[in-house]
Amino acid sequence: MTGMAAASRGRPQRVSMQEHMAIDVSPGPIRPIHLISDYFPHFYPFAEPAQRAPGPRAAVTPAISSAPQPQSDPEPEGDSDDSTALGTLEFTLLFDADNSALHCTAHRAKGLKPPASGSVDTYVKANLLPGASKASQLRTRTVRGTRGPVWEETLTYHGFTRQDAGRKTLRLCVCEDPRLRRRRRAPPLGELRVPLRKLVPNRARSFDVCLEKRRLTKRPKSLDTARGMSLYEEEEVEAEAAGEERGRILLSLCYSSQRGGLLVGVLRCAHLAPMDANGYSDPFVRLFLHPNVGKKSKYKTSVRKKTLNPEFNEEFFYAGPREELAQKTLLVTVWDYDLATADDFIGGVQLSGRASGECQQHWRECLSHSDRRLELWHPLDGAPLQLSD
158, 77 in Cβ contact below 8 A? Predict the structure, then answer.
């Protein structure tokens, strides 16, 4: 037998045409295989039991050391392009219901895959959808020269209510900073979206999520696209819902027994509708106590330039007894300042005992308790407010 084996090694092995079509091309001695399906369990899962069953030529099988064995695929099918290939993002969300705020802490990213090889300069951009993209856009600082950046930075959305949590989605993008590379704006390296309806108020929740490709949406047919313009646009500009939401304002009311009048605090606005061509506004707030006449009934804040989330922290005083103030109406309006033309109306809200909902409740509770400061967010109405005599 030893001599026959040595003689067979000296002669070239004869291979039939059928066996030639099934040659194993992996490194090692060229040997015929039995079933092509043994090498493709993903496409022929029914071949697995046939492999276990001993066949008439089973003695040759152990000699094929390079043949892969059928096994279950540990990763889901087709996820290499849209998930792990783009990297992961670690972040924490906290819905602070007591202060009407949403806190998003961007911790770090891992395994980023930039379009070109090498290190990247990256930051995280956040948007609340639906809504005007620039009104809800926040971003972290840029971390330079690494594919595993660490930010440890918290982005805060003020004026975030329980109603927002039920219908809003947070969009997070990992973007490459084009300013540091002196090149045009590049698409995001990856993005992800988190529905906020599952957040538990006042309880932080951590995420470690795979990034996905940027989503594109078709431009509306009503838009006349110029030649060469893309038929698709980023979904962040989907927010023609900006016409539905004019923004909101945080007001504080306090009846001061020592001064004998009402203190009105204009604290801040959030998610204002953009009124200028650059996508922003130059907002300021006007106050008017009706039916008072004269300058003592009208106030306005300073102007905040190029922002949709201004912070004012200004306070105004209206003198008068509590019973008299209860019969009046406080009109609060937000405007976009224009230098050469008339100011643009963004939205307004009126507080009085004849109002409805939280506007009435805020007004009555303030006048029924002395020396107690009450803060509340109010949505802005885009229609001009009408006052009755």
Answer: no
